């Protein structure tokens, strides 16, 4: 009996030892990613000072790019003075005070610091931010980024310290398992800037707008809908033609986004950020709806792809949206921004899949019309 007890104890001690070793390894691996410094050649835009640009900045901060939704506790009168944005088992995320007050970053940030943080997800000391929709903001034009910085700088300084962000053990385990990436890890920091289309009621501008806004975070890279990760959230509907908006007029769309009630009289789930989206101008909303209408339904492939150690399920979209008045898409192909592999898909994994599709298409996965 004694011997059995001893063996059981030894096995248990061994298991505990292994768990401690695994925890140390997870900590070490994730800490290296969190402390990594990124050298980024900042390309700060010119910062305007005229009233129209500052007003444009206000619109971007409070409606289009929704900075205020995270960086303000006071949603009725956003002051950008910081806010505990999220506290869930993987991480606590404090969105810092952006003003020049005590506890804020406004007084010490240079133009280059703003550009690196917003477009690249990298702090002034070179370390990566834990979270920010940087993949969207990466596409901000110089004019829009300049306007955002000008507006944030014009805010009255407020003394407030937002809670510090922290990754909890579950978050570290997810990071180590390749399930959670830091925004800076997903971006090509050296790629040339993509010129933004001119402001207007065009499909190109709509595509830009739905990218620097948040639509694609929930409705998918191709706006074709899908389930969301958040517990209790309804699935995000398909916004492309033939989807949820079939039969809607522009006026129906604008009304739904302004009131939160769709043409069928259904009150949209409070999860839909229509309080922000509804602040978009009529022209912006019309541009948004043009984007959502492909001239023919996108084709897609489903399959599995081995990426190093991990095999990933992916759904890859092929097809593009028509510019106004044209019947055929101008660009047909597999593009990273149309590639939705999993909620954690990175541009790198998209590129890998893209190149393997080029090589082995169409045998990879099954094409569905
Ligand atoms: C979905 C929520 C969300 C949105 C939208 C958002 N942020 Fe953030 N932001 C955060 C969080 C959370 C952090 C802190 C990340 C961390 O601690 O690593 C952060 C960090 C920052 C920082 C870095 C401050 C520092 O620690 O040095 C700046 C600057 C910033 N945000 C500006 C903006 C601007 C400008 C916008 C809009 C264009 C914006 N953010 C939109 C959540 C958000
Ligand atoms: C945080 C996630 C999220 C974001 C961001 C988001 N949506 Fe949605 N959206 C949803 C969900 C979830 C629904 C379904 C709501 C429901 O069933 O009540 C929805 C519904 C809609 C509907 C109504 C469809 C219908 O059948 O009535 C429209 C239109 C829409 N979204 C457009 C947009 C646009 C345009 C953007 C960007 C400017 C956007 N959404 C951003 C999650 C989101």
Structure description:
The chain has 369 residues and is an alpha+beta fold. It has four domains: 1-35; 51-178; 221-291, no CATH class; 299-368, no CATH class. 38% of the residues lie in helices and 10% in strands. It is built from 13 helices and seven strands. It has helices at 2-35, 51-64, 67-71, 111-120, 134-137, 142-154, 169-176, 203-212, 215-219, 250-259, 274-277, 282-291, 347-360, and strands at residues 83-88, 91-95, 166-167, 299-307, 310-318, 339-340, 366-368. A hairpin with a 2-residue loop joins strand 4 and strand 5 (310-318). Helix 2 (51-64) crosses helix 6. The longest helix has 34 residues, at 2-35. The protein starts with a helix and ends with a strand. The relative contact order is 0.10. Mean pLDDT is 81; it is low at 294-345 and 357-369. The structure holds heme C (2 copies).
Bound molecules: heme C
Percent range of helical residues:
25-40%
Number of strands: 7
Number of helices: 13
Average pLDDT taken over every residue: 81
Coarse morphology: globular
Task: Tell me the fraction of residues in β-strands, as a range.
Answer: 5-15%
- Strand arrangement within the widest β-sheet reads 6-5-4-7
Rg of Cα set: 23 Å
Based on helices, strands and strand pairing, what is the structural class? alpha+beta
**Total number of domains:** 4
Stretches where pLDDT is under 50 for at least 5 consecutive residues are 294-345, 357-369
